[in-house]
């Protein structure tokens, strides 16, 4: 199955620890969404926004990887699944259930995300923009 990562799961070593079967395929952009951080966990989330985009990583994951991600993402309590079509294929990602106000991420979490942006060669301007909006 295809999975779109946009937060800490972009960090390839963390993703490999979490999901041993995962394979990073390529970087992609999710259009008409924007990146933000929220909840008491100060974690990454995406929300619809016209003419905006969220860069991320496209991964191939196994069914057992998906179960591990479900646990990690506290599905379906904190995050729910969101599906979109990319080049004719269904892609799964997570989005928060409760859209609480913006909360600046912890330094530790942000460093994991920044490393993921480097790992996947993503443009950091999108991450920086999410931190000031």
Strand content: 35-45%
> What's the CATH H-level homologous superfamily?
Gamma-glutamyl cyclotransferase-like
Order of helices and strands: EHEEHEEHH
Provide the structure class: alpha+beta
The gross shape turns out to be globular
Mean pLDDT: 97
Number of domains in the coordinates? Answer: 1
Report on this model:
This protein is α+β, with helices and mostly antiparallel strands. It has one domain (2-123): Hypothetical upf0131 protein ytfp. The protein has helices spanning 12-18, 63-72, 107-119, 124-132; strands at residues 2-5, 23-38, 43-60, 79-86, 89-96. The protein has a 5-stranded mixed beta sheet. It starts with a strand and ends with a helix. The model has no long low-confidence stretch (mean pLDDT 97).
Summed up, what is this model?
This protein is an alpha+beta fold and 133 residues long. It is built from four helices and five strands, in the order E-H-E-E-H-E-E-H-H.
Name the features:
133 residues, Hypothetical upf0131 protein ytfp
List the helices and strands and how they pair.
Layout: E1 2-5, H1 12-18, E2 23-38, E3 43-60, H2 63-72, E4 79-86, E5 89-96, H3 107-119, H4 124-132
């Amino acid at each position: 199955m295809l999975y779109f990562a946009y937060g800490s799961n972009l960090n390839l070593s963390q993703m490999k620890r979490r999901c041993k079967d995962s394979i990073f395929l390529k970087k992609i952009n999710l259009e008409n969404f924007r990146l933000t951080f929220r909840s008491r966990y100060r974690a990454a989330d995406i929300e619809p926004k016209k003419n905006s985009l969220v860069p991320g990583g496209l991964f191939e994951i196994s069914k057992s990887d998906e179960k591990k991600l479900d646990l990690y993402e506290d599905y379906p309590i904190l995050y729910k699944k969101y599906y979109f079509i990319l080049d004719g294929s269904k892609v799964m990602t997570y989005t928060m259930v409760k859209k609480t106000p913006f909360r600046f991420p912890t330094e530790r979490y942000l460093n994991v995300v920044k490393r993921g942006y480097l790992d996947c060669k993503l443009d950091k301007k999108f991450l920086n923009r999410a931190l000031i909006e």
